[in-house]
Amino acid sequence: AQSVTQPDIHITVSEGASLELRCNYSYGATPYLFWYVQSPGQGLQLLLKYFSGDTLVQGIKGFEAEFKRSQSSFNLRKPSVHWSDAAEYFCAVGAGPGGGNKLTFGTGTQLKVEL
Amino acid sequence: DAGVIQSPRHEVTEMGQEVTLRCKPISGHDYLFWYRQTMMRGLELLIYFNNNVPIDDSGMPEDRFSAKMPNASFSTLKIQPSEPRDSAVYFCASSSSQGLVEKLFFGSGTQLSVL
Fold first, then answer.
1. What confidence score (pLDDT) does residue A94 get?
2. Residue B86: partners with Cβ closer than 8 Å, 6 or more residues away
3. Are A21 and A109 in contact (CB under 8 A)?
4. Which pLDDT score is estimated for A52?
5. How far apart are CA A91 and CA B15, in angstroms?
6. Buried (b) or exposed (e) across A27-65, using 16+ Cβ within 10 A?
7. What's the sign of the alpha-carbon dihedral A107, A110, B1, B6?
8. For residue range A51-73, what is the model confidence (pLDDT) as tens digits?
9. How far apart are CA B69 and CA B10, in angstroms?
10. Which of A54-68, A76-90, B40-54, B87-101 has the lowest mean pLDDT?
11. What gap in Å lies between CA B38 and CA B26, rounded to an integer?
12. Is the pLDDT reported for residue A85 higher than 90?
């Protein structure tokens, strides 16, 4: 069965500092990987996704993530954090076509940005 | 498109009462998902439909929970009788099977409180 681990429940960074949110997955085949962001009182919004090809993927809002098969990781990064990035971030793994777009989510990382 | 629409946004009820949550997916999407979000367990997939047919309901906690999709534009999640441990945010999401695995579009969620 597929699973996702986000080891950091809370992270605090200063505005302008760099950010890396960790995500490790478990999946038997080539995974389809996603990062979502959730602002308070809102649903989840897709930041970026990885299906195949270049292992460094760019997303919205200046975020990027790197797929490392050898480490079963898909960490999210941003060079310079803005106060508006404060939110909860979820990593997810999907089964791909034929898997019904079914996603398994990690438990999330709450990001706090200090001004 | 208005996106995935869920109602109500907030529901407060007493233990033992029946609760019905509603979802209107994005027009043209053929997958619909119900997720539950709690602090303890994060985002859990409860059930999903493809072309109005339930495909996987293994995440439904128990017989008190039921979900229906009578047509392509409407789905309900019902809890009868409700219990305090059902308190959570319930998200509906939809996606399209056209092309590669595409992103899920989430509704804003229903905050359920069972007293």
1. 83
2. B19, B64, B79, B112, B114
3. yes
4. 81
5. 33
6. beeebbbbbbbbeeeebbbbbbbbbeeeeebebeeebbb
7. positive
8. 888 899 999 999 999 999 999 99
9. 21
10. B87-101
11. 25
12. yes
* Bridge partner list, B74: B71
Q: What pLDDT digit, counting tens, does each position of B53-92 carry?
A: 998 898 998 899 999 999 999 999 999 999 999 999 999 9
Q: What was the pLDDT predicted at B98?
A: 65
- Using CB atoms, which residue from B56, B101, B107 is nearest to A97? B101
- Among B34, B58, B103, the residue to mutate for chain A (most A Cβ within 10 A): B103
* Residues of A with Cβ-Cβ distance to B95 under 8 angstroms: 101
Query: Can you tell me the distance from the alpha carbon of B66 to that of B78, in angstroms, rounded to the nearest whole number?
Result: 5
CA separation for the pair B106, B115 (Å, rounded): 27
Contacts of B7 (CB under 8 A, 6+ apart): B21, B22, B110
Could you tell me how far CA B36 lies from the centroid of its own chain?
7
Other CB atoms within 10 Å distance of the CB of residue A24 = 18
Nearest to A49 among B93, B103, B106 (CB): B103
pLDDT value of position A96: 62
Interface of A with B (CB under 8 A): 32, 34, 41-46, 49, 51, 90, 94, 96-97, 99-108
